[in-house]
Amino acid sequence: MVAETRQRLGHIDLLVCNAASNPYYGPMAGISDEQFRKIFDNNVLANHWLITMVAPEMIERREGAIIVISSIGGLIGSDVIGAYNISKAADFQLVRNLAVEFGRHNVRVNAIAPGVIRTDFARALWEDPKAEAAFQQVTPLGRIGEPEEIAGAAVFLASKAGAYVTGQGLVVDGGGTIKGGL
Are the beta carbons of 110 and 92 closer than 8 angstroms? Predict the structure, then answer.
């Protein structure tokens, strides 16, 4: 993917790591080692690999932005998606560590922490009218987020407007984490 991007477009100015999986729903006591590893491989290790492939050219040019799509799950506990949340917390720490390492080279590394967004990942919530209504009651903005709202946060972090932001996790959740109802 990185080689193909370079071949088609030249050097890479921006990397957005936006892959995740969660093959297990239930308490931590029931997760298999294979499921736990898959979550960490997809949600943390894959980000590390992509960043390792792209960061050297950004460092050499002394310019670039890396954005990891984490989750508000990395900020809260859960009795049903604990391993996923742990992986997303690890993404926040990956961002902080790399921001320290790459900052002197003018390469910024940040995370976006979406709440519930109208994507396939959250389809079970927004396709069920009762579940969506319950979610709306606990979210200050009273609605599910839209993909373009995450894209807008990424545009900010990738642009000159975000040039002095690094090592941060930008929460985009309609206020859900401040109300504590998620």
Answer: no
